[in-house]
Amino acid sequence: MRIYFDNAASTPLDPQVIAAMTEVMHTHHGNPSSIHAEGRQARTLIEQSRRTVAKHLKASIGEVFFTSGGTEANNMALKNAVRDLGVRRVISSATEHHCVLHSVQALDRHTDDLEVIYLQLDGRGYPDIDQLKELLADPSKTTLVSLMHANNEIGTMIDLARVGAICQEYGAYFHSDTTQTMGYYPIDVATNYISFLTGSAHKFHGPKGVGFIYINGDNMISPYLDGGAQERNMRAGTENTYGIVGLAKALDLAYTEQDSRRAYIRHLQQYLKASIEAEFPAITFNGDPDKGHYKLLNLRLPASPQTDLLLFNMDIAGISVSGGSACSSGTDTGSHVLRAIHGDTDNAVNMRVSFSHFNTEAEIDRFLEVLRAILRKGQ
Ligand SMILES: Cc1ncc(COP(=O)(O)O)c(C=O)c1O
């Protein structure tokens, strides 16, 4: 049996989600825009799903729009804010997921008078909030702050409520990529100041290729995709009915079982951390593991002949981990997150281990056994 420790890249589908989706596949083939009975039934499923998502975020149903995933939702937030809300300054960080970072870079290239500023980071990946306040004190440009809630590679988290309050105080828009925390931490848009949030079903045991964006109702933005009146005219294209139903089911389960899943996964994370500390003193941790996202631990190993092909050897031994985000590890270009924190010349080997409630302590024991064998080989 393989051991899957790459849950920050994607999670296995929950059997209850599969059941909800297959039921829709078998019984609801109508186009949700059709006015006949089949169409109306499909529309009802989508609106029920929207209500579920809105309920968990304490949002209005008119503020939730389904998308093809986190990437599209983040592109939409950033590009629409610049296009429609008069944003002329974007403040972000170099450790954002590429779908944010590359969107900001594209906006920078294609928008003449746009100023882009990346906040300084400390050694654990925290953006400098005092610098943010200093920058926001200059009110001359309409500003969007885009800071992810939890970093997908190292787990470092911002205080969503605090950053939101600062943005509100200085009149800036606030977008947070919540793709890694949606379903894992309570998110309340009724009491926090947030302009845009994003979610992706496959990060919380739902299907791939479906996500959503929360857009605060005060922000009047135009459609991102043209060609149809779907999603209240905000995103053209026939909706992914079974994907949306799966997303809502998975999010509902994630929030209903949040406390027990969180305690269990945090226990797994701490068990691995304590075991590493006890047995491998040369291994340290990227980020701030005790305060960061509980679903992952990012190990930092000194470069050596043993760690040369670490991820490959783990894979051969039946254990799936990653070197960073799925895209960077796939193309083996290294981690832009760790480069931003440790610099270009750092040659440490980094390994992200990310958990779900389907993992067990026995799997961690096996991981440690394999790590031990790899690190001792040839010594
Ligand atoms: C922080 C973060 N943002 C955005 C995304 C992109 O989400 P999706 O895979 O749904 O496009 C991911 C997933 O890779 C992520 O971890």
Q: Under CATH, the topology of the largest domain is which? A: Aspartate Aminotransferase, domain 2
Number of strands: 12
The overall number of domains is: 2
Categorize the overall geometry.
globular
- Unreliable parts: 327-331
Relative strand content: 5-15%
Largest sheet: 7 strands, mixed
Distance between the termini: 29 Å
Mean pLDDT, as a whole number? 95
Q: How would you write the strand order of the largest sheet?
A: 2-8-7-6-5-3-4
Question: CATH superfamily assignment of the largest domain?
Answer: Type I PLP-dependent aspartate aminotransferase-like (Major domain)
Radius of gyration: 21 Å
Structural class: alpha/beta
Ions, cofactors and other bound molecules: pyridoxal-5'-phosphate
Order of helices and strands: EHHEHEHEHEHEEEHHHEEHEHHEH
CATH class placement of the largest domain:
Alpha Beta
**CATH architecture field of the largest domain:** 3-Layer(aba) Sandwich
Secondary structure tally, helices: 13
The percent of residues in helical segments reads: 40-55%
Q: Care to give the gist of this entry?
A:
The protein has 379 residues and is of the alpha/beta class.
Key phrases:
binds pyridoxal-5'-phosphate; Aspartate Aminotransferase, domain 2; globular; 7-stranded mixed β-sheet; alpha/beta; 13 helices; 2 domains; Aspartate Aminotransferase, domain 1; 3-stranded antiparallel β-sheet; 379 residues
